[in-house]
Amino acid sequence: MALATNATLIRAIGRPLRRFAPILSVAGIVVVTRYDDVREVLERDEDFTIAEINSAPMDRINGPFILSMDRSTHYSRERSILQSCVQPQDPARIRSTVRAVTAELLARRPRGRLDVVQDLARPAALRLAGDYFGLPGPDPVTMMRWTRALFREAFLNSGGDRDARRAALHAAAEFHAYADELIARRLAMLSTGTPAPDDFLTRLIRLRDDPRTRLSPEGIRRTLGGVVVGAIEPTSKVTAQAVERLLRHGCALRRARDAALDGDTDLVRRYALEAQRFNPLTAAVVRHTARDTVLAAGTPRQRRIPAGRKVYAALLPAMFDPAAFPDPGSLRGDRPASRYLSDGHGLHRCFGRYVNDVQVTELIAALLRLDGLRPAPGRPGRIRYDGPFPDRLLVEFGQGRAA
Ligand code: HEM
């Protein structure tokens, strides 16, 4: 199994690294594993930058997007454009959409067995992309192919795998043609006063009335495209990994299930965050060292990092640092939510947190409410990966063995 998807191995390697080489520099790469140091790297966004890491792949498949921009007026403008499309009632709206979609998807699987990835998490995230973001895709299969290929190329193909790149370029061309047409149609509706759905796309277009927030149709496409590509696979991956993890922790599973049955959404969310800590979306985020600098200054582990080094801020090992997460191997629902790093930290911390808090929690709660939820026996009861993406996780519920 690839290191990137083997959280158990990463946790095991993280332990001696945190202890004996917390800022490890080898072959032009620096790996940072202690909680405070990971936060420091991500807070010092002018010393440890992102454009050198993300802009080339992002430009290839989408065009500039905030996750490929360093701190600048351009970055602030584009992030505030996104923020102005979010309204206070959105979390409630997202919750009711996810609940309705989840109930519908689960009702289709009455036989006591389901695939968390293909039957639930991916289709649910896709439906939210249509309902809330306004980008449903031509059909679910095509949209899933596009978003998976684009996400892989944007964030996970630093080795330049040729097949992955070819698939992404192909997907990008198809996706751009589809999105350009969708945006042109919506622009025409709005300019003629035809009623349009209140979704992210309409809100982005309405911002055009203000010259400070006016995006060209191409700007709308790369902004909305970046958000939707960043939304679907991560939701599915994190949900599957968190469920797999909870199913292995009997005591935590029972408590999380009771919370789901009692309607204690906040406690389910805490268990969801805690389960992600064991296997987050990404084990590390990467930055470029913009200038010679010192990390962890004034501590016994302080280290000079020369300009040009790639720095891996290792989120997963940092969330097993006992200094920040006492008794890190226990899965508990009472840790402070602000401690987690699963959705990043600092300038680029996930924009979609208000979505994840609701969507991932609701998906997991719906599964926990299934009577006697358990992994399917044998290998199907463990996640099968397609590269970095969970592709299957079979669970069973109800009495007896599923047919
Ligand atoms: C549970 C699912 C998700 C997880 C675990 C997750 C995780 C992350 C992480 C770790 C980062 C920071 C990357 C870095 O620092 O290099 C990030 C950034 C981002 N995420 Fe998410 N994400 C999720 C879902 C979403 C969703 C649903 C959206 C859209 C609403 C979204 C939009 C973004 C955007 C736009 C950024 C860039 C923020 C910036 O550069 O300022 N993500 N996400």
TrEMBL record:
Pfam families, alphabetized: p450
GO molecular function: heme binding; iron ion binding; monooxygenase activity; oxidoreductase activity, acting on paired donors, with incorporation or reduction of molecular oxygen
Gene3D superfamilies associated with the record: Cytochrome P450 (1.10.630.10)
Highest taxon of the lineage: Bacteria
Record family assignment: Belongs to the cytochrome P450 family.
The name this protein goes by in its record: Cytochrome P450
Source organism of the structure: Actinoplanes regularis
Lineage of the species this protein comes from: Bacteria, Bacillati, Actinomycetota, Actinomycetes, Micromonosporales
